[in-house]
């Protein structure tokens, strides 16, 4: 399978919007971090919101490692891929890395057929929608993403891309200000 076969970003424009039926989700209040809440918990709350608002099966926030330019950490995850939270994966050979290269939201169809590390780690994906986390002066911190796995009726559209763009606002600054790194046990935050 070639890279051009898994990148389906152009399909977003032709897919019907679904917002008319989701007005209550659009007006949902943003989950705000409370005092004493860890950065990981705040990021996880944003993932839970993405999961709900996009009707996805998994959601996550990937953070690029400052010490290893070719790795990223799934800093927060929700849904089917929640057990992978804290795991490190290759940046250059991933949907997140491609999102970084294009510097825009990307839609992928069955990316596990192209990125062999996904299949090797039992990460099977029907669709993945990935949005960059871009901070001040264009600095790139990572991505926020949603995925579908075994439900073939889930197809992301421009409404979902708008939702991820909305959820991404301020995340790069939050991550930079909190200097994500290993927690006291040595695990990435």
TrEMBL record:
This is GAF domain-containing protein. Residues 1-31 are annotated as: Disordered. InterPro entries: GAF-like_dom_sf.
């Amino acid at each position: 399978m070639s890279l051009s076969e898994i990148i389906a970003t152009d399909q977003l424009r032709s897919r019907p919007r679904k917002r008319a039926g989701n007005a209550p989700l659009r007006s949902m209040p943003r989950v705000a971090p409370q005092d004493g809440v860890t950065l990981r918990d705040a990021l996880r709350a944003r993932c839970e919101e993405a999961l709900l608002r996009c009707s996805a099966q998994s959601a996550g926030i990937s953070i690029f490692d400052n010490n290893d330019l070719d790795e990223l950490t799934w800093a927060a995850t929700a849904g089917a891929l929640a057990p992978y939270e804290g795991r490190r994966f290759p940046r250059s050979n991933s949907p997140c890395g491609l999102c970084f290269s294009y510097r825009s939201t990307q839609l992928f169809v069955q990316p596990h057929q192209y990125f062999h590390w996904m299949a090797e780690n039992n990460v099977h994906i029907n669709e993945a929608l990935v949005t960059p986390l871009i901070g001040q002066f264009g600095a790139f911190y990572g991505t926020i993403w949603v995925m579908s796995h075994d439900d073939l009726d889930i197809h992301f559209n421009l409404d979902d891309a708008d939702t991820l763009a909305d959820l991404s606002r301020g995340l790069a600054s939050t991550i930079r200000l909190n200097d994500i790194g290993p927690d006291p046990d040595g695990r990435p935050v």
